[in-house]
Here is the input.
Amino acid sequence: MIINVEGLVKHYSDVKAVDDVSFNVEEGEIFGLLGPNGAGKTTLMEILCSLRNFDKGKVIVNGFDLVKDSRKIRGIIGFCPQETLLYDLLSVRENLAFSASLYSLSSKKLKERVEYSAKVLGVGEFLNRRVQQLSGGMKRRANLAASIIHDPPIVILDEPTVGFDPHIKREFWELIKNLKNYGKTVLLSTHDMYEADEICDRVAIMDGGKIAALDKPHILKQSMGGEPSIHIRVKEPQKKKALQTLKDYKSTFIDDEIRIFTTNPWETMNEVSSKLSSQGILTEKIEIMEPTLEDVFIRLTGRKLTEESK
Amino acid sequence: MNSVIGIALKDIKIFFREKGTVFWTIAFPVMILLLFTAIFGREIPFNANIGVVDYEKDTQGISASIMSGLNNTGVFTVKNFTDKAEALKELNATNLRAVITIPKNFTQDLYLGQASVELVVDGTNPDVTRLIRDAVKTFFSEYYKQFYHQIYGTDYTAPITVHEEIAVVGQEIGYKENIVPGMLTYPLLFSSMVVSTSAIVFERERGTLKKIRAAPIRPINMLLGKTLAALFQTAISIIVMAVLAAFLLGPKLNWDVPLLGPIFFLGSMNGIALGLIISCIGRAPQEASNAATTIAIVLQFFTGMYFPIEYLPVYMQQMGRVIPMTYAAQALRDIMIRNATIGDLLLPMATLAFSAICLYTVGVLLYKRWVEK
Here is the structure.
């Protein structure tokens, strides 16, 4: 393993931001921290990057102890926070050169790394443009390039695609997968279940500073969100009546929809349709959905990923 | 709500929530008003150290009465000397602004109406030179008037001149020669302090400090980088100001770059270190920026940059003497006006170096503490 976290605890006054968290990250994998805002993901990542102290626990990164060898650890991590940390008045090339200077890179190595960034992260087309002239997507790519200019074996990405359009998001996912292909270990945080599902080899679901579950996405879905669900939407005045009618099923009410979890979705859907019709309830929508990581999260916490963590 | 009002209300609310910003906004006018009141709200807005060399030592106490009379004017703080050479040494070391020598037979000459004293005055500040000349002349004229009345019982009607031999230390200079070294002190205090404060506050505000802190560099490396950039920016201010002053004002000054360079460097380091401390103490960027500006503006009154330190009340003059920039301002005047040598500058250089090291160390410790938080 390349990252080993054991019993990590971090308080902000009376609030436990990270509560007895333990996990390992294997070399070369993409490891996701999935959770809503306030789950403790950013705090956890900032601790790993030596940007925050912690109260209790042990963190070993590539064999180095975070307390004793924090500078060595900072040298092997590339941290890309949510916000774009580039200087607007400098060009992308100048920003990359500045980041390289923080890691004492030689000019030859810098040249190689700029070429790598151009090839792998696609910053070549706007290398000489000032950051203030770039689009949001370009800035994020340049930000990522600056964060890994020193060729670190571990890349930590905090909400790398938050606020992106779907097509830019997909483009970024490819960039992250590409990092893995180049041998990097990636630890990323996200509150986007599709992102975690799409690009992560393993996912730790966080809520209230704790890890609620950790495994490969498909195993999590099978074991905890395992059952497909039937999503039913009815007209507003008939909601109560519909819920009363379906009270014998394993159901929840989320996003104006009734969700019924079942191992036998087609049969259950027919039954539910008949029951609702017999009561004169008109359905606006009724469909079968395969389980997602969001279902896993809902099963674990009773809330959606888009809600604040408790 | 109108958008203009909405924006204004938002800014006002934020202003009141940044307690430090509120403090410095109020502190600035209060400090300036208190300073001006202390400096100019007095009857005698001037006090200079002068030496009196008494070769008379008369039994009638004439020379003693002159010395106490000079002290009682409130314009002078008198130090007594028995040897003129010793007094002139103090004058050259800028510890005194003038030396008055009471010659032998002064009392006898006074009775004969032929008395004279010798006045040697520091000519490197035209304001001070003029004020001291006028004050000394007025004093002796009044003194002789009273003496005449006591002896002869009548007021004298014809003006009697107290003979003075007036000499000047260094070259007697004009206003522009005096003001240029003061102007060159300005970037040391203002530019360096504000630049270094804003350099760190800028990184903090933009979040880019996070990126720097995530890299394997020591806090001191980050601060040294910032210091180098602040030194460069301060140097630009100094060079621009010096070149413009030389061309526009054409002062007759000694532009001894090898001597001026170390003073500029040490002065800037003091300003930068102070800026670093302010940037670590100020929580909000606006607070740090206001604090740096206020402190720089207030300090310039104490340093003798623009007007002689003798205009300040004595307690303020003493406060000025613990401010490193006062030594930088004085050293610049010594080099440019008095043609001071490296030997003359050892004390101010050592003082500036010592204070720079102390302030910088405090700044580094505060920064480290802030980072570790």
In short: The domain at 3-90+148-222 of chain A is CATH 3.40.50.300 (Rossmann fold).
